[in-house]
């Protein structure tokens, strides 16, 4: 049975700590609630599923239903000599899940350690870090399809994953219920990424746990902890632009990091570098600013800040970047 609460404060439930309230709120913690949930959604003008709230830009007042996914459970099974299949319910905390996999001896997700949020949101924006994306390990995503009012499974291919994107992100008819991952019994560490490579080179015969600890320490040294200062991690996507344009920029800015993409006509450039190079790292206007250690992260210093205030600061950064480099920065977190 679902319990519905009215006028819930969302300020502590979003990692940016934006001031926000929702007209209706309910907790989903049991699969038997799904049919009732489908009916409840029909009585609201709009709804969204809330996980850890770490990738959201919430409005001051959300006139709709917030469904807080708190479905729990993790199950390991052996597929063959090489792989485990690990099934995790959507409401599990992502980093606790990664820690549990590492302890069990199911490997692959180490590079994604300490990303805030829930298991259920991980396929939605195809989370990625340090050269790894979650799509590389996802076998299936079980979703509740609100249109058909039933549980269905989507294969990896059907999820249509791409850079911080998926079929799920663009379809609000699906509530992610469970994600299954195919993880290795023997670790194949991915340690070629930038400063991780340097640190791992100092350890002889590093284990998956060593890699996880190294990722955690690196992230803690560079990124603000949402428990201490409001943020949503990377605020802008790294722009994917025509390779010819990237090469042209490299003539004026030889230090600009440029990464190849699967299509040689397009290259990915570092949004953080573009902002940093304008001298905006640490720049603050009233309650919001650019994080002093990492220019890609916008921070919110107060719990009275509204969506409007944050977005107007983001627009200023976008305008400066556009004027200076002719490159459009797009916002990564979801604007509700
Ligand atoms: C300090 C910090 C560092 C970060 N670093 C990274 C990083 O390295 N890489 C990276 O990719 N991201 C990063 N992020 C962003 C964020 O952690 C991820 O996007 C994460 O997956 C969001 O999970 P969540 O549960 O908090 O989702 P929420 O913010 O609650 O929701 C995000 C979106 O997913 C939808 N959603 C959530 N759960 C479900 C569900 N069960 N079914 C359907 N839709 C759902 C929501 O409706 C919303 O549209 C970082 C954020 C912070 C604050």
Strand portion, in percent? 25-35%
**Got a strand count?**
20
CATH architecture of the largest domain: 2-Layer Sandwich
Q: Determine the N-to-C terminus distance.
A: 27 Å
Briefly, what CATH class of the largest domain?
Alpha Beta
H/E series: EEHEEEEEHEEEEHEHHEEHEEHEEEHE
Could you say which small molecules are bound to this protein? flavin-adenine dinucleotide
Provide the CATH topology of the largest domain. Answer: Uridine Diphospho-n-acetylenolpyruvylglucosamine Reductase, domain 3
Structural class from helices and strands? alpha+beta
Spatial strand order of the main sheet: 6-7-12-10-11
Q: Give the helix level as a range of percent.
A: 10-25%
Q: Give the tally of structural domains.
A: 3
In short:
By secondary structure, this protein is α+β, with helices and mostly antiparallel strands. The chain contains eight helices and 20 strands.
Structure explained in plain terms:
- By secondary structure, the chain is of the alpha+beta class.
- It is built from 8 helices and 20 strands.
- It has helices at 34-42, 94-104, 156-159, 194-200, 208-222, 243-252, 271-277, 307-325; strands at residues 4-9, 21-28, 47-50, 56-57, 61-69, 74-78, 83-89, 128-129, 132-133, 138-145, 150-155, 174-184, 230-234, 240-242, 258-260, 266-269, 284-285, 288-290, 297-300, 334-335.
- A hairpin with a 6-residue loop joins strand 18 and strand 19.
- The radius of gyration is 20 Å and the shape is globular.
- The relative contact order is 0.13.
- Flavin-adenine dinucleotide (FAD) binds at residues 15, 48-56, 69, 90, 115-118, 120-122, 124-125, 127-129, 175-176, 223, 226, 231-233, 334.
